[in-house]
């Protein structure tokens, strides 16, 4: 959400009908705040887009973007699927009461213990990533006399136009069975020959933070081409084609994301053109569901002014709350939450408190005149902020608050110094 779309009241940023400054007084800073109505709205836009295009579909929330009990409970309320990528995410979802039948389990190196956990809890589908996993899963199913739905994750040779660490569909990737070398055919035969695995469909994911439709339409066309190949070679037609996620959002005014209606419309047209019997289509949005709903609130502290240089304005958090600027050179925008009605008078670096020169949350940000104690709100931090948070420099992780319809609720408590040493043992 860009700054001019924000809601303010008496100069204060309002989130989900709640005064952000009152939130900081109640819960402290740093503080992650999520507008739950925005999350629900985005999910419903995806659903509407599919229904407008008359496609069978499932929305599967990619929960690596933000995985806590409360968000899984929201997803349950919205009747969507989720995907998890670790035993920890799976455990959290189960603890939240999320139905296991609507869980997909991803990952390029699932452990034996994680697969046992998935089978024991009857997850809806395991998305198989490699030959070692086929062997492990086959052994577990045979030993435990269980059957399970699976999909094959394929590497179709399509690169997304995004940061190199966010590209996952090209041939040289750690993920999935390579199509060009014949790995996909070999995996297909092994799974179809296993009586305890039901091959529900095929999956591919080409990357993250993608703004154009071309990559998605190319992927849709490629997946139909592969489905036809598998039908010829193995007499197999998928029930599901899972096109992954990666739909971009607007972090700054320079970003120009496509709407759900636009990219799903293009995908639908491509699929209907390519085949008569279109399988059920799954997508796995994560960032695009939660990122725009998230804000991180900080208290402004020290300032460093250097002659003829941009000043440094420091806050009481930083890379421990949001590693993406340091890791990916990700860009964000911010506002001073208690001075929304004041003119922007200066450009500053927004610096974190961590003992790293690279701990810069925003390289250049326009702000009004500020004082220590003012509240800075960094926008669109709902994805990969809390989920990648850490205790570097022995800083406790921030609290998480959900707001909706003018009400606020603490959903993750702030860590304490005692929490930081709770697992330490004396030598």
TrEMBL record:
Record key words, sorted: Amino-acid biosynthesis, Decarboxylase, Lyase, Lysine biosynthesis, Pyridoxal phosphate
Function as written in the Swiss-Prot or TrEMBL entry: Specifically catalyzes the decarboxylation of meso-diaminopimelate (meso-DAP) to L-lysine.
Coiled-coil blocks: none
Enzyme class: lyase
Originating organism: Companilactobacillus nuruki
Gene for this chain: lysA
Active site: 355
Family, per entry: Belongs to the Orn/Lys/Arg decarboxylase class-II family. LysA subfamily.
Ranges where the Orn/DAP/Arg decarboxylase 2 N-terminal domain occurs: 37-291
Protein name: Diaminopimelate decarboxylase
Pathways per UniProt: Amino-acid biosynthesis; L-lysine biosynthesis via DAP pathway; L-lysine from DL-2,6-diaminopimelate: step 1/1
Cofactor: pyridoxal 5'-phosphate
Binding site for pyridoxal 5'-phosphate: 246, 284-287, 384
Gene Ontology MF: a single term: diaminopimelate decarboxylase activity
Record's signal peptide: none
Alphabetized Pfam families for the sequence: Orn_Arg_deC_N
EC number from the UniProt entry: 4.1.1.20
UniProt xrefs under Gene3D superfamilies: Alanine racemase, Lyase, Ornithine Decarboxylase, Chain A, domain 1
Modified residues (N6-(pyridoxal phosphate)lysine): 64
Annotated GO biological process: lysine biosynthetic process via diaminopimelate
InterPro entries: Ala_racemase/Decarboxylase_C, DAP_deCOOHase_LysA, De-COase2_N, Orn/DAP/Arg_de-COase, PLP-binding_barrel
Positions that bind substrate: 287, 324, 328, 356, 384
Key word Amino-acid biosynthesis present: yes
Catalytic activity: meso-2,6-diaminopimelate + H(+) = L-lysine + CO2
Assembly behavior: Homodimer.
């Amino acid at each position: 959400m860009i700054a001019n779309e924000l809601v303010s009241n008496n100069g204060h940023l309002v989130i989900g009908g709640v005064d952000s400054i009152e939130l900081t007084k109640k819960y402290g800073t740093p503080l992650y705040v999520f507008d739950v109505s925005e999350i629900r709205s985005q999910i419903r836009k995806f659903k509407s887009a599919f229904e407008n295009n008359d496609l069978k579909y499932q929305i599967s929330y990619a929960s690596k973007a933000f995985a806590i009990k409360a968000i899984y409970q929201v997803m349950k309320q919205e009747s969507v699927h989720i995907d998890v990528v670790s035993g920890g995410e799976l455990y959290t979802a189960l603890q939240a009461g999320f139905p296991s039948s609507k869980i997909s389990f991803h990952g390029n190196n699932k452990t034996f213990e994680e697969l046992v956990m998935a089978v024991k809890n009857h997850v809806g589908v395991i998305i198989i990533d490699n030959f070692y996993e086929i062997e492990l899963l086959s052994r577990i199913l045979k030993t435990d006399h269980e059957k399970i739905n699976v999909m094959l994750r394929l590497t179709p040779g399509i690169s997304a136009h995004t940061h190199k660490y966010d590209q996952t569909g090209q041939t040289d990737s750690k993920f999935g069975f390579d199509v060009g070398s014949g790995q996909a055919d070999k995996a297909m035969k092994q799974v179809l020959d296993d009586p305890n695995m039901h091959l529900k469909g095929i999956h591919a994911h080409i990357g993250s933070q993608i703004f154009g439709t071309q990559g998605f339409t190319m992927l849709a066309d490629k997946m139909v081409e592969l489905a036809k190949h598998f039908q010829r070679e193995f007499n197999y037609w998928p029930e599901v084609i899972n096109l992954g996620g990666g739909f971009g959002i607007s972090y700054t005014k320079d970003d120009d994301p496509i709407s759900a209606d636009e990219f799903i419309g293009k995908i639908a047209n491509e699929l209907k053109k390519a085949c008569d019997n279109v399988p059920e289509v799954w997508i796995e949005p994560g960032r695009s569901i939660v990122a725009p709903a998230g804000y991180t609130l900080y208290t402004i502290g020290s300032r460093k002014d250097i002659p003829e240089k941009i000043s440094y304005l420091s806050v009481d958090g930083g890379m421990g709350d949001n590693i993406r600027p340091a890791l990916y050179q990700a860009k964000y925008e911010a506002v001073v939450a208690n001075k929304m009605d004041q003119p922007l008078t200066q450009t500053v670096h927004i610096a974190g408190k961590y003992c790293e020169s690279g701990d810069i949350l925003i390289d250049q940000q326009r702000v009004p005149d500020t004082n220590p104690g003012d509240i800075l709100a960094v926008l669109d931090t709902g994805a990969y902020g809390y989920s990648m948070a850490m205790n570097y420099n022995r800083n406790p992780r921030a609290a998480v608050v959900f707001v909706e319809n003018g009400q606020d609720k603490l959903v993750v408590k702030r860590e304490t110094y005692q929490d930081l040493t709770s697992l330490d043992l004396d030598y």
